[in-house]
Amino acid sequence: MKPTAEAIANILECEGYADEHSFLEDYAFESVVPGCCMNPDCGWVKTSCEPDLTKGWCEGCDKKTVSSALILMGLI
């Protein structure tokens, strides 16, 4: 599995956020949030995930390895 900090940094970069605080201001209470593939060989960032997603389908590597940003940040 990809390290959680690396996945969070990947989401923030792809979504254009400088830090987790500004990201959470926009997404903490949304019904759809970004997520990241946790496969170490894949860097796919999915732009629309359920906030509690832990084993979502990755279009990049065709595996069930996507977790939502809120899960990765330990908020859910």
The first-to-last residue Cα distance is 19 Å
Poorly predicted residue ranges = none
Provide the spatial order of strands within the biggest beta sheet: 2-1-4-3
- Fraction in helix: 25-40%
Number of helices: 3
C-alpha Rg (nearest Å)? 11 Å
Can you summarize the main beta sheet?
4 strands, antiparallel
Number of strands: 4
Categorize the overall geometry.
globular
Mean pLDDT: 94
Measured by DSSP, the beta-strand proportion falls in: 15-25%
Could you give the order of the helices and strands?
HHEEEEH
Structural class by sheet pairing and helices? alpha+beta
Number of domains: 1
Describe the protein in words.
The protein is of the alpha+beta class and 76 residues long. The protein has one domain (4-72). It is 32% helix and 22% strand. The chain contains three helices and four strands, in the order H-H-E-E-E-E-H. Strand 1 (33-37) and strand 2 form a beta hairpin. The model has no long low-confidence stretch (mean pLDDT 94).
